[in-house]
Amino acid sequence: MRRPFARALAGALTLVAGAAVAPLAQAPTAAADSVVIGGQPVKVADSPWVVALASRDRFGGIRDGQFCGGVLVAPTTVVTAAHCLGRQVLGGPVDSVADFRVITGRTELRAPDGREIAVRAARVNPAYDPGTNAGDLAVLELAEAVPADHVLPMAGDGHPGYEAGTGAAVYGWGDTSGFGDYAYGLRAAQVTVLDDEVCRRAYPGNSDGQYRADSMVCAGDRSGGKDACQGDSGGPLVARGRLIGLVSWGRGCGRADSPGVYTRIAPLIDFVSGLQRGGRPSGV
Ligand code: ARG
């Protein structure tokens, strides 16, 4: 019953991301017969820093109310996409995160494993621009800490993971087909970090959105079929053992000419770690 609602949400998320939804009439691409898009099931035990962001109040109990992904970067700090919290998406002010739960240690959303942790405070990157989707990152402060070895380090400038041609993996519980087939189990797809010039050509700034190399990184697969999709937003793009991006936006899902666009982590490390050091996130 909640499914259409979830799908409507996915649509809204795409709009916020400034990307057009692929028209249904369009011929299915390689993505349609691959089942994140073109990924395979993975266990959260092997990637304990991946979390699901959920609200049963807003999105129902199905799939535990999962609506976005996130990443543990410190024992009480999760980063996710700013558009996952935006009032445009959730129909309310960003300060109402009291119903949010961060689900850790649960590969399969129907299983009782792992923990659900409340969010004590949230802060959206002040430089986030919902119009262009630049700087699409928010920080959630958890009410309880996870073990220190559950965190993924962020990749600073100069980390080799940002180099074009680097293999990367994207994780999530989102749509596996581009047609609203949301996953119950965590999946990961292997993608390649693309050259900024390729990303710019794919998104030159028309109605589908504009790639900005200073705040975004793009990744995909030469022949398409491997990508993040709706519901994966805020989840990690990992290269060489570090977090380089957060799922942010794209045109359709898994199309060869339309790589996935991710929030570039390096320019936001100071913002994220500044909050950790004592500048408490606020806003609940
Ligand atoms: N904005 C979407 C979400 O909120 C993520 C879309 C990613 N799309 C892509 N083709 N990589 O879940």
UniProtKB/TrEMBL annotation:
GO biological process, one term: proteolysis
Gene3D superfamilies: Trypsin-like serine proteases
First and last residue of the signal peptide: 1-27
Coiled-coil region: none
Peptidase S1 domain: residues covered: 36-277
UniProt key word Cell membrane: no
SMART domains assigned: Tryp_SPc (SM00020)
Top-level taxon of origin: Bacteria
Keywords, ordered alphabetically: Disulfide bond, Hydrolase, Protease, Serine protease, Signal
Gene Ontology molecular function, alphabetical: serine-type endopeptidase activity
Pfam families given in the database record: Trypsin
PANTHER family: FI18310P1-RELATED (PTHR24276:SF98), POLYSERASE-RELATED (PTHR24276)
Family statement: Belongs to the peptidase S1 family.
Identification of the protein by name: Serine protease
Record organism: Streptomyces katrae
